[in-house]
Amino acid sequence: MELGPIGYNGGSVMISEDMTSAMTTQLDRTNEEWLADLRSTQGQQPAAIDDLRERVKRSIYYYLSQERSDLRDLAQKELVTMAEDLAQDAVLRVMDNLDNFRGESRFTTWANKIAVRLAISELRRARYKDFSLDDLTADGDFLSAEASIVGEAPPNPETAAERDDVIARIDAAMKEALTDRQYRALVAVALRGVPMDIVAEQLDTNRNALYKLIYDARRNLKNYMESQGLSTDYMLDLFQR
């Protein structure tokens, strides 16, 4: 599914009981009726799936049109198309997780949360659809280009010079202390914010192995920096001034 170069602005999404009610005009089923109809082999399932698709589509459209400031320039038709595409996948996700529904909320509220989380995930993947770990090599000064690691207020000249020196030393340490695989994983996840599943896919590994790779990279970098006389406390203090 092509969603274009859409940004992700993070944050949690709350789907309330009132919102769920407002987005439907159909006579609601009870939780038990939803589960029974969606699992039915007697003919009720198709209608229940259609109803569920319409409900989660409205929920997704509401999220795309009201909660995502980065999508404000898209035409309504584009948002509707996106919502329809995502609703198809959301229904499959809900059907796969029916056994996990515990009845602690309305079924539609639970399903809408799944749908919106899926939308968030797909939008994040769309943002990085052209991202390649092959571009993250230790050939250049990566950290020196990361303005986000310094404070918003300009530091005094002495602090600025000290920060520049530390950034250069961290940049060099990453090249010295980390393998190319560790470097790319750490930069992508910790500094670029690339989703774990995308990095794992490009490294031909799984999430657990990627967690271990990043943990080892952080540990190696920390040990190397301390051997160079740069403690974590010192660096945190320097960039919080």
UniProtKB/TrEMBL annotation:
SUPFAM superfamilies: Sigma2 domain of RNA polymerase sigma factors (SSF88946), Sigma3 and sigma4 domains of RNA polymerase sigma factors (SSF88659)
Alphabetized InterPro entries for the sequence: RNA_pol_sigma-70-like, RNA_pol_sigma-70_dom, RNA_pol_sigma70_r2, RNA_pol_sigma_r2, RNA_pol_sigma_r3/r4-like, WH-like_DNA-bd_sf
Transmembrane annotation, as ranges: none
One biological process term in Gene Ontology: DNA-templated transcription initiation
Keyword annotations of the record: Sigma factor, Transcription, Transcription regulation
Coiled coil: none
Domain RNA polymerase sigma-70 region positions: 82-127
GO molecular function terms listed in the Swiss-Prot or TrEMBL record: sigma factor activity
Entry keyword Transcription regulation: yes
Top-level lineage group: Bacteria
Family: Belongs to the sigma-70 factor family. ECF subfamily.
Listed name of the protein: Sigma-70 family RNA polymerase sigma factor
Organism: Phototrophicus methaneseepsis
